[in-house]
Design a protein that fits this description.
Elements (H helix, E strand, L loop, with lengths): L7 E5 L4 E8 L3 E8 L4 H16 L8 E7 L3 H18 L3 E5 H9 L5 E7 L4 E8 L9 E4 H4 L8 E4 L3 H10 L4 E3 L3 H15 L14
Parallel strand pairs: 1-4, 4-5, 6-9, 9-10
Antiparallel strand pairs: 1-2, 2-3, 6-7, 7-8
Length: 213
């Protein structure tokens, strides 16, 4: 019988927005999104505290923590996961890592077709990978420039995830057929909980950001 997790905290520090969500009393949700640029470490605990207070719950009541593993801001991801690891060990609760690939698979609900996923890397370079069903081979992730994207087969849908609005608008000017997957920390809540129930809790000590080079 699956355990019901009543109070869950999700933290996403993969991008320039610090995104948080809390699910409490089994079905109520509060969330926040704060532009932070490079200052995740200065704000993450304060913003968690603010959101806990807005939910009017005790932080010690969390029975599940969920954190983004990226790809994304490597420093931001390390800060977010380090904060969650400390909380998970102090509270003795599971910590689940959720990647952008996990979120994309959950949102697209792929069955009998494939898509190409696009994730920001640096400047005008991007990570790209083919996804089929809910599977993605990380070892097959490529780094491509925008000029190379223009040469890809347009019959295969391309979805962009992890872009802020400005970043997506810039690439959409060059590649107008690309669709954006918008998500927030509530997607982490849903995807992370489903992943835990499906795969079980992993090892907190070995959970690291998804680093692709």
């Amino acid at each position: 019988m699956n355990k019901e997790y009543k109070n869950i905290l999700a933290v996403d520090t993969a991008t320039s927005d610090l995104q948080l969500a809390i699910k409490f009393d089994s079905d109520r949700i509060v969330k926040s999104s704060t532009p932070v640029d490079r200052s995740h470490g200065q704000l993450v605990f304060r913003k968690i505290k603010d959101l806990v207070e807005s939910a009017n719950i005790d932080a010690a009541s969390f029975d599940l923590l969920i954190g983004s593993t990226g790809p994304g801001s490597f420093t931001g991801l390390r800060i977010g996961l380090a904060a969650l690891k400390g909380m998970a060990m102090a509270l003795d609760v599971p910590l689940v890592g959720v990647s952008l690939f996990d979120i994309a698979a959950a949102r697209l609900k792929l069955e009998n077709h494939s898509v190409r996923l696009l994730i920001p890397f640096i400047r005008d370079n991007f990570f790209t990978v083919l996804m089929s069903s809910d599977n993605v081979e990380i070892k097959e992730v490529q780094t491509v420039a925008i000029s190379e994207l223009m040469e890809f087969d347009r019959s295969l849908p391309i979805y962009a995830i992890g872009f802020d609005t400005t970043g997506f608008e810039n690439i959409a000017q060059e590649l107008p057929w690309i669709e954006r997957i918008e998500y927030d920390a509530t997607d982490l809540l849903e995807t992370g909980t489903a992943k835990l129930l499906r795969e079980g809790a992993g090892d907190i000590q070995t959970l690291e950001p998804l680093y692709i080079q």
